[in-house]
Design goal:
Blueprint: E1 2-8, H1 14-27, H2 32-53, E2 61-69, E3 73-80, H3 95-100, H4 108-115, E4 118-123, E5 128-134
Antiparallel strand pairs: 1-2, 2-3, 3-5, 4-5
Helix pairs in contact: 1-2, 2-4
Length: about 140
């Protein structure tokens, strides 16, 4: 099954994105813990795109596509047209360094990389796709 949701790049739309993802995951029988973990990962990537790549410009938009492959996992495609940031190439800071510097932020992408099984960035002349894959049993 394939689901799609498109929103303007406004921080206020993050709640709607979380609700959309949670609704789809609940529909496919994920546990509360698995669903909440995946919602967290998708929220983090979408927030980074909306805030950092698009500077909350409501004239821009991002699209989220969720592809559920029964008994094979879930693919989340986050599609936009901003300058590309390759999360797959992101080098995690050491947790000790974050604590020492009392940095706010910096943990979200670490969580995304630990939650998801695969992260792929696809770029063509008209769009970017951040593809996050989770191999998990779904109904």
């Amino acid at each position: 099954m394939k689901y799609s949701y498109k929103v303007p790049c406004k921080k206020e739309k993050l709640r709607d994105i979380r609700s959309f993802v949670k609704e789809i995951l609940d529909k496919h029988g994920l546990s509360e813990i698995d669903a909440s973990t995946l919602v967290l990962a998708i929220d983090e990537v979408c927030a980074n795109l909306i805030i950092h790549a698009h500077q909350c410009n409501a004239k821009d938009s991002i699209e989220l596509q969720i592809i559920v492959k029964h008994n094979d996992g879930i693919i989340f495609d986050i599609i936009d047209k901003a300058e590309i940031f390759d999360i797959g190439q992101y080098e995690e800071p050491k947790l000790e360094d974050i604590i020492k510097k009392q940095r706010k932020g910096g943990l979200g992408l670490i969580l995304v990389k630990r939650i998801m099984d695969d992260i792929e960035i696809i770029h063509d002349s008209s769009k970017n796709i951040c593809r996050l894959t989770k191999r998990i049993d779904v109904i």
